[in-house]
């Protein structure tokens, strides 16, 4: 693997760095931060995505006919790295750009692509993902949300949970059961649902971190045009695999690796600064060993991302290898934040808003958010099953 960038790649990176410098608020990450109120933060992130779109940086790897730039995989990787390195805000329409777009480009009709893709990039329409259910999270094929044909519409009834950003979304990619007589993997369809339809109810869920990013969503006699089915009727499971592979791929993980590395660097500073009696926290040999372990794990995560990217460049599909990457970073990140709280010691309970909270309470928030890493985007147990069955050839 060649770890160096070409001259063209470097020009692309420098252009992006300059654009970020010119467009991020002055003092960003130091004196200026995202709004703390969730609704204000959502509006802020949506506005940032519109800036990216206006600047020609949204949907880089999308084909030009759908509003993208047709960028290479290397350019997309550089974009992910530089956005994370600058601490740029996350987008509100991340599900639309990263999941819905690639899925429709591979499985949607041309009419569906023309209708939905441009408005995803322009942020005129925000999307959420209706996959998991209260009794069908890790075992996604056991969904019970059903859709029954009624003329030129389907009538949807059921519940979804963990629908991120549903309270801000206009559209939803929804997995529904359309034939109960077929085996559970074969009776599922993939559809596009207007969240403004009568019968859709969204209820935000308060998480352990105090945020309400997730929601539970109810569908009561929601009428969906038959033309909003993606792919073949009862062929939704295969389409969902495309969506999930995009969710677990190296693009997402590369950006996460940079963010985890920044958190780790801040942790090292905190460990060297915080006093434990007459010495610093980092002088504790056991704690120092745990920090060293995180340093190694975050570097391994970077190299694993590059290995996955290299395979994609050679024409390989993400496939089950994406599960290895997702499984690895989930546990590595949890370990990082556990070490962070151990480093803070008696200051660990202090959160944002307390003047004595180290790093403005970011480590505590990161720890609480990290508890979901091994559950969302496919639990660790499911990732291990995928690796065992599809990569190692072990029996079910």
Present the secondary structure layout:
Layout: H1 7-23, H2 38-54, H3 73-85, H4 94-107, H5 110-121, E1 127-130, E2 146-150, E3 153-161, E4 171-177, E5 188-194, E6 200-204, E7 215-225, E8 229-230, H6 236-248, H7 250-273, E9 275-276, E10 279-280, H8 285-313, H9 321-344, H10 362-370, H11 380-391
Parallel strand pairs: 1-4
Antiparallel strand pairs: 2-3, 3-7, 4-5, 5-8, 6-7, 9-10
Helix pairs in contact: 1-3, 3-7, 4-5, 4-6, 7-8, 7-9, 8-9, 9-10, 9-11
List key phrases describing it.
single chain; 396 residues; alpha+beta; Butyryl-Coa Dehydrogenase, subunit A, domain 1; Butyryl-CoA Dehydrogenase, subunit A, domain 2; Butyryl-CoA Dehydrogenase, subunit A, domain 3; four-stranded antiparallel β-sheet; 14% strand; globular
